[in-house]
Write a structure and sequence with these properties.
Oligomer: heterotrimer
CATH architecture of chain B: 3-Layer(aba) Sandwich
Largest sheet of chain A: none
Helix content of chain B: 25-40%
Distance between the termini of chain B: 20 Å
Number of helices of chain A: 10
Shape of chain A: globular
Number of domains of chain B: 1
Strand order of the largest sheet of chain B: 6-7-8-3-9
Radius of gyration of chain A: 26 Å
CATH topology of chain A: MetI-like fold
CATH architecture of chain A: Orthogonal Bundle
CATH class of chain B: Alpha Beta
CATH class of chain A: Mainly Alpha
Number of domains of chain A: 1
CATH superfamily of chain B: P-loop containing nucleotide triphosphate hydrolases
Structural class of chain A: mainly alpha
Chains: A mainly alpha, B alpha/beta, C alpha/beta
Helix content of chain A: 55-70%
Strand content of chain B: 15-25%
Strand content of chain A: under 5%
Number of helices of chain B: 9
Structural class of chain B: alpha/beta
């Protein structure tokens, strides 16, 4: 019963292949696809609706104030009779702009600081990380309010406020990643090959952490949008006549108590749905860049 | 050409992994350093290649003491060494195609113009075929990647090769091929070799002389 | 050999990966071998030849883009068609004990060896109660020659050899009839390799409860370790088992019969130390016929056709002087 007996060639003519693998692939694909569609719809809406739809979002119609959703106004109207659907689209546009701008700024600052700290090491690392610790010890919203309060209300103060409170986590992620990569033999090999410190950082360390940093940036967009909304809701963010999701919800506060739910619900949904969609896409991306998931072929 | 005098080195204060070790490699000589795993021989190899600053001790390169390590070491001293490590996977930047991996030392030292010619020379000596050169590390086997890492170490024509367990993860045939490539290079250039490992049969066959780790301290 | 039924019987096992763009990678092609109780079969070959994929197929750990064919019978159970539930509940740990490649990574870093052993004992056996678990864990450690005074240490406090023994102790807990060792000696130095091999051999010979000993399938590229431990060797090249031979005959006289196996042995530093010319073909782009032909000094035109099935997959094998047909 051992293998020394040459077994008859077991008909390799038609091999019957069986697939294995987990079955939940389909729901993941569905989740990713839904997220992608929603993100695309969001981006298209904020980019295309304002130029294509020649309607004035500020058009006041006091005769039709606080109307519930109807065919003429699918999302209803607000307390001065402005169309809420239009207001929401414009609000999303502003919120998304603030979110993206703040996330980009925060990521650039965070990556630069984190990479510098990780690559330089020694006292530079300690000093930079002490700055990060100091910033982190102040509650985000408090620091954000403080920064906004120094400026006249507007879009850019909000961007700066959100960016300055959010680069810290990116800096930490990037620094940790750089530190773990720095002890890899391939960095040793680069040093031995005559590479300067600058070249090692820019050519070998930074490209390796960029996917992580970019992922952090994407996840930061919804976070920044919420932060903007919080500031605006507190009346410290954007001026109330600029429609942002935060200002919309803030102005709707009064009517909610009066039982008019639509001025709060729809801006809220506009905040939540893109947030979930972006998070869904980012999650899928994270699985892709995770080295454990990357090697499909395990040879 | 390389002399290590009572080197003590480690990664944490008060816990050196290398204690008071001395070792000499003469010009053109090949020395095998034998020791069990975890004894600190890899750390000594990194010190020898100017990649890790020792806590104490002197390193003489061509009779001159070296005072600066890693990035601070003068480039011409650093590039006098070619290093090959045990784990090819960790020694290769995962984003670089094998060509760029091998060319990286040339580009880093401002000799990018020599890249095509040098690649054409190096690839056959380590047994890499042209179709492999365009691939990235995850698309080749450990053995093929280690061949590329050896080519990278030879790119700047080092005067001393430091091979730290270069063949420990490889099958017998690839190991023999890599050793043959190193020996061809040494025969052509007269470079010296410090081969670190635990395989007595391998180092005994490969090197002019082998030294036991325990006999160094 | 005797007529004891094999523990593991692999027939026509093939694994392929479907790659993006419709490419197919034939990682394992038509593997066929048995492992009997009390026997060690060493599966040797270079990295990327498909031997780890074969191990993953036996454990049901292939990724989603893999397809399999053939059968791998462990008793009455076909490992290739068994569902994940069956594999998790009755196979891994209970029928197949895995001795991992890097024990330090296989052990949970934040828990002591004792707690991991006790947990494994509680999961895999019917032992219950604190004192009983403690005793069983200590017995398991002793079986793998893991020193009892090191049981309360964390994995990072262990040397490479002790970590390997701890992992082996875990693999032995379920008293599985088949041990699967995946490169158990990688990165260890020669003395430790010898010791690990000897210890594994001891577990193969240990009669155990069934009184027949365990079967060990060891996957390795380390020929010296294989020589030390194996009863039989299977040489794998480009996804195929090209030679299946008795270990004593393979490493000693008359030596291997397949030209690739011969080349592999001749590359050892204590033999000729000469490499086989060239490199193995891509598993995604295998030539028709013999995959080794391009590197082989015995190759002829015949080699463009499929090599004959049997213990030596070669058209022109080395023929030993003694009559063996």
């Amino acid at each position: 019963m051992t293998c020394d007996a040459p077994a008859p060639a077991a008909a390799p003519e038609r091999t019957e292949w069986r697939s294995h693998g987990p079955r939940r692939r389909s729901t993941r694909a569905l989740r990713v696809r839904t997220s992608a569609v929603l993100v695309a719809a969001t981006v298209l809406a904020v980019l295309l609706v304002p130029p294509l739809v020649q309607l004035d979002q500020q058009a006041v119609d006091l005769a039709a104030k606080l109307r519930p959703p109807s065919w003429a106004h699918p999302f209803g109207t607000d307390d001065v009779g402005r169309d809420l659907l239009l207001r929401c689209v414009y609000g999303l546009r502003v919120s998304l702009l603030v979110g993206v701008a703040a996330a980009l700024t925060a990521t650039v600052v965070g990556t630069a600081v984190g990479a510098a700290a990780g690559a330089l090491g020694g006292w530079a690392d300690r000093a930079l990380m002490r700055v990060v610790d100091t910033f982190s010890s102040v509650p985000h919203l408090l620091l954000g309010i403080f920064i906004v309060a120094m400026f006249r209300p507007g879009v850019w103060p909000v961007v700066i406020s959100v960016a300055l409170t959010h680069w810290l986590s990116t800096a930490r992620i990037v620094r940790a990643e750089v530190l773990s990569l720095r002890s890899r033999p391939y960095i040793d090999a680069a040093v031995s090959g005559g590479a300067s410190r600058w070249r090692v950082t820019v050519r070998h360390l930074l490209p390796a952490v960029l996917p992580q940093a970019a992922l952090a940036a994407v996840l930061m967009v919804p976070h920044a949008m919420w932060h903007e909304s919080a500031l605006s809701f507190l009346g410290l963010g954007l001026p109330t006549h600029t429609a942002s999701l935060g200002t919309l919800i803030q102005t709707a506060r009064g009517s909610l108590l009066a039982g008019q739910w639509w001025p709060t619900l729809f801006p809220g949904l506009f905040l939540i749905v893109p947030t979930l969609a972006i998070a869904g896409l980012a999650g899928a991306w994270r699985e892709r860049i995770n080295p454990r998931h990357r090697s499909e072929l395990m040879l | 050409m390389l002399e290590l005098r009572s080197i003590t080195a480690g990664y944490a204060r008060n816990a050196p992994v290398v204690r008071d070790v001395s070792l000499t490699v003469a010009s053109g000589e090949s020395v095998g350093l034998l020791g069990p795993s975890g004894c600190g021989k890899s750390t000594l190899a990194r010190v020898a290649a100017l990649l890790h600053r020792p806590d104490s001790g002197t390193l003489l390169l061509d009779g001159e003491p070296v005072r600066r390590w890693r990035h601070r070491a003068p480039r011409e001293k650093r590039t006098a060494f070619g290093v090959v490590f045990q784990q090819a996977r960790l020694s290769a930047d995962p984003r670089l195609a094998l060509t760029d991996l091998i060319a990286e030392p040339l580009r880093a030292t401002g000799r990018g113009a020599e890249v095509p010619g040098r690649i054409a020379e190096l690839a056959p000596t380590v047994g890499l075929t042209p179709d492999l050169l365009t691939r990235r590390p995850h698309e080749v086997s450990d053995g093929q990647l280690q061949r590329a890492c050896l080519a990278r170490a030879l790119a700047l024509r080092p005067r001393l090769l430091v091979c730290d367990e270069m063949t420990a993860m490889l099958d017998a045939s690839t190991a023999a091929a890599l050793v043959a490539a190193v020996e061809d290079y040494r025969a052509a250039t007269g470079a010296a070799l410090l081969a670190v490992g635990h395989d007595r049969a391998l180092l005994g066959r490969w090197c002019d002389r082998t030294v036991q780790w325990d006999s160094l301290a | 050999m005797d007529s004891m039924p094999p523990v593991l019987s692999v027939r026509g096992l093939s694994v392929r990966f479907l790659m993006p763009g419709g490419r197919r990678v034939a990682a394992v092609t038509d593997a066929r071998f048995d492992v009997a109780p009390g026997e060690c079969l060493a599966l040797i070959g270079e990295s990327g030849c498909g031997k780890s994929v074969l191990a993953s197929a036996l454990l049901g750990l292939l990724p989603g883009n893999a397809q399999t064919a053939g059968s791998a019978l462990l008793g009455d159970l076909d490992l290739l068609t068994a569902g994940e539930r069956t594999l998790a509940r009755t196979v891994r740990g209970r029928l197949i004990g895995l001795v991992p490649q890097s024990p330090a990574a296989h052990l949970t870093p934040v828990r002591t060896v004792r707690s991991q052993l006790e947990e494994t004992v509680a999961t895999l056996t019917t032992t219950r109660g604190r004192a009983a678990l403690r005793a069983a864990a200590e017995a398991a450690a002793e079986r793998a020659a893991f020193p009892a005074d090191h049981l309360d240490r964390h994995p990072h406090q262990l040397s490479g050899g002790l970590a390997q023994r701890a992992a082996t102790a875990l693999a032995l807990v379920g008293d599985a009839p088949l041990l699967l060792a995946d490169e158990p000696t990688t990165g260890l130095d020669r003395d430790l390799v010898d010791r690990t091999a000897d210890e594994l051999r001891r577990h193969v010979d240990d009669p155990g409860e069934g009184g027949r000993g365990r079967a060990l399938l060891m996957i390795t590229h380390d020929l010296a370790a294989a020589e030390r431990i194996a009863d039989r060797v299977a040489v794998m090249y480009a996804g195929r088992i090209v030679e299946l031979a008795d270990a004593a005959a393979f490493f000693g006289s008359p030596g291997p019969r397949h030209p690739y196996s011969r080349g592999l042995l001749q590359a050892l530093p204590d033999r000729a130390f000469t490499p086989i010319p060239g490199m193995p073909p891509e598993l995604g782009d295998l030539p028709a016929g013999c995959a080794f032909a391009a590197r082989c000094d015995r190759a002829t035109d015949t080699c463009a056709t499929e090599p004959p099935p049997g213990t030596v997959a070669c058209h022109h094998p080395h023929v030993p002087e003694d009559v063996r047909a």
